Write a sequence for this structure.
């Protein structure tokens, strides 16, 4: 499974668990195991470097178990195959987003003209409110 341009995740590292989906659906929900959970053992995965693993643990902490297993579940579709594809797609998106390096923010300053526009508008609104309350006679 392709995660980024330089990172591929072998299918052997993924395990799938099926269970019954919740919600409406009648007999389909009561009889079939259509919910799919994809599990990836981050702690034992040789695919990720120590730096990447640390970033994944930090950014996906709520989805990782104490044992170091990342879990993604899908029960949106009515078939197990569709939910499996959806779970794999979501796993790839999560991993790609978590591994993406953020560009550092460069501090900027508001321009003189923008500050002047803000203050002019502020004076205008203050004057309008003062006129409403009767403190200043309208022009």
């Amino acid at each position: 499974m392709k995660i980024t341009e330089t990172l591929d995740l072998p299918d052997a590292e993924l395990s799938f668990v099926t269970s019954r989906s919740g919600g409406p659906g009648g007999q389909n929900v009561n009889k079939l195991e259509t919910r799919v959970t994809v599990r990836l053992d981050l702690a034992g995965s040789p695919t990720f470097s120590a730096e990447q693993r640390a970033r994944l643990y930090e950014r996906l902490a709520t989805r990782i178990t104490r044992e170091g297993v990342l879990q993604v579940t899908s029960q949106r579709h009515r078939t197990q195959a569709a939910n499996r594809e959806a779970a794999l797609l979501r796993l790839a998106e999560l991993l790609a987003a978590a591994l993406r390096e953020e560009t550092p923010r460069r501090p900027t300053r508001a321009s003189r003209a923008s500050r002047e526009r803000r203050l002019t508008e502020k004076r205008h609104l203050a004057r309008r409110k003062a006129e409403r309350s009767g403190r200043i006679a309208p022009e």
